[in-house]
Amino acid sequence: DIDGSILEGGGQILRNSVALSALLGKPIHIHSIRAGRSKPGLKAQHMTGIDLVARMHGGDIEGVKLNSSEVTFRPAAFDPGATHSFVADIGTAGSIGLLIQCSLPTLVFAGVPMRGVLRGGTNVAFSPMVEYVSQVFAPLAARMGVKLHLDVKRRGFFPRGGGEVHLAVEPAAAALAPLVVEERGTVTGVKVWAFHAQRMPEGVAREMLAAATKGLAAALPAVGAAGVEVETELVHLPGGNPCAGLMITATTSTG
To answer: What is the pTM of this model?
Structure first.
């Protein structure tokens, strides 16, 4: 029995619990789901993630409906022969990045290469953009033996969604290597990436880029002093509705 309200009371407890339940073959009951949020209970992204894991592992699920505050999941044995490819459509601008969080542990230990089509939001607020997954998470996960690749076919923004990402995951060894990063190290590079989509004026993204660069100079004076260059990039992304966003990544001497 798992209390979904612990810590921040968000969806992370749900995603982790469902993934571990499937991997370990242990049934779970989660209550008070997302109790810490202004709109608690299951939303489309959470339901799609649970459904995807349940489809790969079979078994029984109860309570998977919009705004539900509790879910029961009884996983069965994973059948890679029947599920080496899959499609998961959130149907809203729900985060594809968070959908990957929920399903990746199962995909990694499938024992066969897995290929999937994920539909929903690619660049939305309060969740990891697909660029974060590919540029930050994936390189770190690779050091543990997790090999995943994202191919963005179509962008999806709030409120329409409609993005599409093709996900490829290679089978991992019996056990993942530990990731040991005990020292932050020194910053060796910084990249500021801003985008605008559809009719959102380019000037909005340029202002975001300039503000971020100025903020970095004030917050990290050592970067400039050490001769570490701040790389900037402004891109126009195709998408269904006007949108703008920003991502800042830093590379350090410890990876």
So the answer is: 0.88
φ and ψ of 167, to 5 deg: -110, 130
The per-residue pLDDT for 89 is 95
- Can you say how many angstroms the Cα of residue 179 is from the centroid of all Cα atoms in its chain? 19
Could you tell me how far CA 145 lies from the centroid of its own chain? 18
Nearest to 136 by CA among 110, 95, 97: 97
Q: What φ, ψ does residue 88 adopt, rounded to 5°?
A: -135, 115
Cα 205 to Cα 78: distance, rounded to the nearest angstrom: 45
- Whether the CB-CB separation of 150 and 115 falls below 8 Å is answered with no
The single-letter DSSP state of residue 81 is G
| 120 Rama class: left (phi>0) / alpha (psi -120 to 50) / beta | left
Residue 235: alpha-carbon gap to chain centroid: 21
The CB density around residue 172, as the number of other CB atoms within 10 Å, is: 19
The single residue listed with the structure tokens 């209390």 is: 3
User: Residue 25 is encoded by which pair of tokens?
Assistant: 């073959």
The two three-digit tokens of residue 249, written as one number:
């990544």
Encode pLDDT of 143-185 as tens digits.
999 999 999 998 888 888 889 999 999 998 778 999 988 888 8
Strand extents, DSSP E, 93-186: 114-120, 147-154, 163-170
